[in-house]
Please model this.
Amino acid sequence: MAKMKGLAMLDFDTIGWVEKEIPKAGPTDAICKPLAISPCTSDVHTVWEKALGARHDLILGHEASAEVVEVGALVKDFKVGDKVIIPAITPDWEAVESQAGYSQHSKGMLNGWKFSNTKDGTFAEYFHVNQADGNMAHLPDGISVEDAAMLSDMVPTGFHGANNAEVEYGDTVVVIGIGPVGLMAVAGSVLRGAGRVFGVGSRTTCREAAKYYGATDLINYRDGDIVEQITEAMNGKPVDKVILAGGGLETFDQAVRLVKPGGIVSNINYLGTGDYIKIPRVEWGLGMGHIRIIGGLMPGGRKNMEYLSRMLLHGRLDVSPLLTHKYNRLEDLEEALLLMKDKPKDLIKPIVSIA
Model:
């Protein structure tokens, strides 16, 4: 059979190029070749933090725009040659969990996340998409393949944080972690009507981007305890919502100390290490403070890609500031992934365009 190459997790702490057979499409599936792909911090967690357990020769990656090269006999809405956006989360839509509204967990916890988790991902010459009619969206004219790749994960994850926080007009929101996902949480909160948005982060590039996306206040954790800094800025008052998009397990403690009774702590941060999260008992109202803590994997599927595309097409959102490091060969993926691991000061997201 025909072969392809892909960048894979060979073992813990080890990545490298592998050769595999080109996948075949089942009746409802599609095979795509990437046009633009981007490494994610989740790939870093998987390889170097052992977050998912052992993976051997698993091709990494879950963010891509692509061209369709094969479709199954039952695929109705896509044909060979179509340019498409593929979400990072590709659920099994017939599953009972999907019917209950939690497609991200179709057939098991986090099982809607298939790329680079339970099957080979997008860092390859070709990749497989299950249930293509439900898990791909046509790439509209007017959206670049690079910008489209940001719709796979960064935009929907950040927006999901704002949606789960139920941000309302005039809310004061704290976004802890202003990497690419946190920046999209800032943008999503502003689009939902937040009145004041604190962005917590230290890298100048990210802080400047947070301002661009609507953060009104910037907090640097290197300058001292963020709870003290934000509480002082709020004149002792609590905030309405906190979105966790970065940091470690300690951020839950900080979030509960910051948020008001009846407020919401919305986590979209991939917790790659640690065993338990500690919640401060008194600040949580002795367990009775009506402070909700919710953690949610971004929604997958076609609808989300189509709706978010409208945001770009009609000027509601500009994702170009996220793309700070650009490459143009599949072979550059290894360098791009190591950038995400090392996070130099001028990095937000690398993008590899091979259109």
User: Anything to note?
Assistant: The mean pLDDT is 97.
